[in-house]
Amino acid sequence: MKISVCIPTYNQAAYIGLTIRSVMVQTLLPDEIIVSDDCSTDNTLEILEKLAAEISILTIIRQQSNKGIAGNTDACLRAATGDYIVKLDSDDALLPDYIKTLSALLTEHPQAGYAHAAVREIDHNGHAGEPRRLLRGAGFVTSEDALRSALKGYRVAANILMFRKEALEKVDYIQCTQDFAEDYFLSVCIAKAGYGNVYSPKILSAYRVWTDQGNVRKRRKLAEINGLNAVLSNAITPAFEQRAWDLNPVLRAKQHFAITHSGCLSWKVYNKEEKRELENAILKLSSAPATKFFIWSHKNGFGKVLEVYQNSAATIKRHIKKLILTRPQTR
């Protein structure tokens, strides 16, 4: 069984070396590591060339023009020759048993299109934070259950996955044109194609969490909303139609996401034209009366009241999830 590790990167000189070395200390080493550099403007390429001289299984792809997140990731995955393919972001890291554990799960569950696991958050300095686990049992879920759960969002602890190459080939890799939620889109396409997925609650990787310096994350809100719309309209809806399932749950999911993201209309980081563009994107996601009410409220100064309610509800959900995940397991 041949295993590849794919690492798409852009301007991650500070972390790319650590990421690659985390692969090289696996208890089960991969057959190849492929790094696709999307025209980095820092010294990422220089670091990669030095590592390639040292690590024989490391191959570097240098994109001729900037392809963006989706395009660069797609190119990196397509270059892999392994039966199992790990997709790893260039600021994250694998713990030593990642490949051994997840490759065994994929072998045990031939209908799983990908395997994933719990992660440990780390900050920009590498200091350990909270664990991230899913509120689901360990093991395999069917494609049908995966599609239904996708209505609630991207159901992984973090976007560090081991794919079955056969599943990637069947869906023709990443077909999403958006540079946000392309990973979520791919997971839905794999479920639509009839593959389930398998999950381990063990912490097998480190996921870097960044603070929103300079409101960078807030400035990406339009891309986030458009990405969600692409997933729900172009991936989940066709999957439900293919199975002749009721589409009302999809419409409710669209409304939920539209309401959740409507709060950006009260943010001061946007000017009037940008807010108009955001509002149009939200309405494209859902034009239900409830969505329009939340849009009106945020535009007319009532957003703080709604945010207090939504944040309180989210906090309660997080506490309940933490209690469930940390309670002693009974037989």
TrEMBL record:
UniProt-listed SUPFAM superfamilies:
Nucleotide-diphospho-sugar transferases
Where is coiled-coil annotated?
none
Pfam families reported in the protein's UniProt record: Glycos_transf_2
Task: Tell me the domain of life.
Answer: Bacteria
InterPro entries referenced in this protein's UniProt entry, alphabetically: Glyco_trans_2-like, Glycosyltransf_2, Nucleotide-diphossugar_trans
Where does the Glycosyltransferase 2-like domain start and stop, copy by copy?
4-169
Q: What is this protein called?
A: Glycosyltransferase 2-like domain-containing protein
